[in-house]
Amino acid sequence: MILSLSQTRRFTILVLLALFTCILFLSFVPTSHSYYSYYIQQPYSPSAAPATYHSSPPSATDPSCDPFQLETHLYYDKTAHRDTHFTTYDPACKASHPLWVTQLWELGPNDPPLEAFKDKTVLLIGDSVDRYLLYDVCMFLNGTYAVHPNDSYIKTVNETVVRAHHALPRSCFIDGPSGAQGLVLMSYFFYGFDEEDMWRDKMSTWSEPPRFKERWEMFEYEAYPSIFGEEGILAGRGGPDLVTVNMGFWELARFDRLDEQRQFREGVEERELVDPVTVAEGFVEEFIGKTVEVLGRLRRLAGDKARIRWRQMHTPTISTGPYFIDHNTGTKKKSRGRFTPVKIKVLNEAAEWACRAASEEEVERRRRERGGRGQWESGKGSWWRRVGGGEEEEEEDGRIAVWPVGELMAPWPTGQWLRDDIHPTDSAGVMVWGGGVFEYLARTPQSKPGTRRVGDRKGAGLAL
User: Fold this and answer.
1) Distance between CA atoms of 423 and 222, rounded to whole angstroms?
2) Tens digits of residue pLDDT in 334-384
3) Which residue among 213, 313, 321, 335 is buried most deeply as judged by most CB within 10 Å?
């Protein structure tokens, strides 16, 4: 078919219009480079310039930064475990890479001690997870490991007692190749908030005093002063720089045993025993109230300068097992769902709420105590706030936050990082749990002597 001249002109115009439309459309469609530069922007931070304008990288010891409260994920390498690290997306607050625990391990005999950990102290209050953590880190960093009676860190116990009682306090002194690091880790064990001495049948774990109130008072008025008191083994230090706390697993075990005993008293036959799907609301409320009080007492004991973090529970390999079963009830049921993901989630959330409530109470207490000596500025979300009046300094505002180690581990198959049903392997314990502890410790300014109340019983009574 032969087109006429008018038809040819119209066809040419249509082709040109089509080409122009395509060019115009493509100019608005981002290329791969422009797509990512447009849609992935660094989050706005009022306290920091954009990453492209940083004249120097952010400090790895900045006390105002907590990468675990930001968008952070864990890369865990079970084979080359020293490649394990935390990835944080905020350029102004990044976790150390390589991990601080790896940097400590890499020190040579001619290297000076790392200033971020020089003469600092960590106190781990909790359970066997903390016991394993302290031991694994101690062995990894060639520290001096010791086990102590419940009332004193000055005294040590022999190997026979250690094998018979797994719940005794531990310590580790890490001097490093230079012999001058001065890093100390201490642990203290609690059976949750049990006041009924319900674990006497677990003789490998049980030790005096078993009830929480009595055990806490021994810790506060005897064991703690044996560390930081005038005649303590760390008498020259003001107290712990970092404290981690957790009572979760033993509390879930306590709830399960109480429920099992209740069903036994009510005459429920063994074949009809039912595991609760979640934790009863009344028990959760009790847990929150006791956690708030204990965190408040711990803050007053450790002092204003100490950084306190609640160690989040991780989800074990399996939720059942015979260890915590109360054989005194006559029950022969071999497994109960005491550590299910639902129960772990419930108590983790309850602990986070308790931390928030304890923090608010502490901030209010400190506001009242400061009186006319200067008021807190609006922190704008910062953990550290400038204090007005006289010489200015930075202090933590009393906030007790959750260390979300359970959430960080959740995506990883438990077969890669658990040595048994509950406890992390030595490599996971050192790199993930130890990595988190040292990340916090590096960002905590060293405490000064004379800032803690040690061994003062005046007005001290637990209301638990």
Assistant:
1) 29
2) 567 888 899 999 999 999 999 999 998 887 777 777 664 444 443 333 333
3) 313
Nearest Cα to Cα of residue 309 among 260, 351, 281, 344: 351
What are the phi and psi torsion angles at 187 (to 5°)?
A: -130, 150
Give which of 345, 342, 347, 346 is closest to 290, Cα–Cα: 347
Tokens at residue 205, please? 């774990």
Read off the tokens for 168: 């005794």
For 302-351, the DSSP string reads H-TT-EEEEEPPPPPS-S--STT--GGGT--------S-HHHHHHHHHHH
Q: Give 411-415's long-range contacts (Cβ < 8 A, gap of 24+).
A: 411/73, 411/74, 412/74, 412/76, 414/315, 414/316, 414/317, 415/317
In the 8-state DSSP scheme, what is residue 387? B
Distance CA 213, CA 228 (A): 21
In the block, which residue shows the tokens 């989630």? Answer: 345
DSSP track, 399-450: --EEE-HHHHHTTS-GGGTBSSSSPBPHHHIIIIIHHHHHHHHHTSPPPPTT
The answer to whether 448 and 238 have CB atoms below 8 angstroms apart is yes
C-alpha span between 436 and 425 (Å, rounded)? 15
- Kindly state the DSSP code that residue 235 receives in the 8-state scheme: T
Amino acid at 415: G
Confidence of residue 160 (pLDDT cuts 50, 70, 90): confident
Instruction: Kindly give, in sequence order, each residue whose CB lies less than 8 Å from that of residue 72, ignoring residues fewer than 6 positions away.
Output: 86, 87, 88, 89, 95, 408
319 Cβ contact partners less than 8 Å away, ≥ 6 residues apart: 337, 338, 339, 340, 341, 343
Residue 304 burial (CB count, 10 A): 16
Neighbours of 344 (CB within 10 A): 23
Tens of pLDDT, residue by residue over 182-237, are 999 999 999 999 999 998 888 778 888 999 999 999 999 999 999 999 999 999 89
Dihedral angle at the C-alpha atoms of 106, 110, 115, 121, nearest 10 degrees?
70
Tokens 């500025």 sit on residue: 377
Angstrom distance (rounded) from CA 415 to CA 429: 14
| Residue whose token pair is 């066997």 | 128
Cα separation, 170 vs 186, whole angstroms: 6
